Amino acid sequence: MLGAIAGDLVGSRFEARPTKRKDFELITSGCRITDDSVLSLAVAQSLMEDLPYADNLKAFYRRYPRAGYGGNFKLWASSGDSEPYFSFGNGSAMRVPPVGWYMNTEEDVLREAERSAAVTHNHPEGIKGAQAVALAVFRGRQKTEKEAIRQEIQTRFHYDLSRSLEDIRPGYSFDVTCQGSVPEALIAFLKSVDFEDAVRNAVSLGGDSDTQACIAGAVAEAFFGGLSSAICLAVFRSLDEFQADVLRRFLRKTQGVLPC
């Protein structure tokens, strides 16, 4: 969960100015949290307090209306209608990492990932993207070998995770669909040596940098372990007190301790 927000923070300044490089300064004054973090925190609070996903996503949108939401989500969140809109955008995948931390069986992870996605992203690809990310986070928590994670996600969800970053990077561009961004974000994790490398890999694809770094960062934190104190402190400095309280409570509940 902390890794997801850190990835969003790092990737935020490249969303409008994509890069194909990895040797950038990790966190600068131009970094901020976006809708990825806001809605991940909404899902985390819903899990902890048994709040309906649709109601809480809308509540967080009203509280943070300028976080950079997608157009269809904004229309849904600002309306009086709570019917899903059959989206296959990567919004379902970016907000799902808390599910991978909160649930403790494969079956529960997959079921809850679908529930969290389907309130807006009830397209099969939208649900698949959320389930793939949540399951990868869960397997990371279990310290499953990377090759086993790759094989399971590829077999279950039919994503091609056999590509290299060098194969993807040259022709890759901004893509906000689950099917066009989730596999690449997972590859950024699979090809990494630590948390920071996973986030740099994701940003260097030159795509939807904040969301892909959020996804790669979420899985990398679960797999590699805690973040550095510098990154952890940067995350908390980027949050207001309400957001920080949700995050602290979630970390205590799922990991038992605060990392910084």
Task: Throw out a few tags for this protein.
globular, 260 residues
Polypeptide structure, described:
This protein has helices at residues 2-11, 35-49, 53-63, 71-77, 91-94, 97-102, 106-118, 124-141, 146-157, 165-168, 178-190, 195-203, 209-224, 229-238, 241-255. With 260 residues, the chain is mostly helical. The chain has a single domain, classed as Orthogonal Bundle (ADP-ribosylglycohydrolase fold), CATH 1.10.4080.10. The model has no long low-confidence stretch (mean pLDDT 97).
Give the DSSP E fraction (strand runs of 2 or more residues): under 5%
**Gyration radius, to the nearest Å?**
16 Å
Number of domains in the coordinates?
A: 1
**Largest beta sheet, briefly?**
none
Category from helices, strands and their pairing: mainly alpha
Shape-level CATH architecture: Orthogonal Bundle
State the separation between the terminal residues, measured CA to CA.
Answer: 14 Å
* Amount of helix: 55-70%
Number of helices: 15
Question: Shape, please?
Answer: globular
Order of helices and strands: HHHHHHHHHHHHHHH
Write the layout of secondary structure elements.
Blueprint: H1 2-11, H2 35-49, H3 53-63, H4 71-77, H5 91-94, H6 97-102, H7 106-118, H8 124-141, H9 146-157, H10 165-168, H11 178-190, H12 195-203, H13 209-224, H14 229-238, H15 241-255
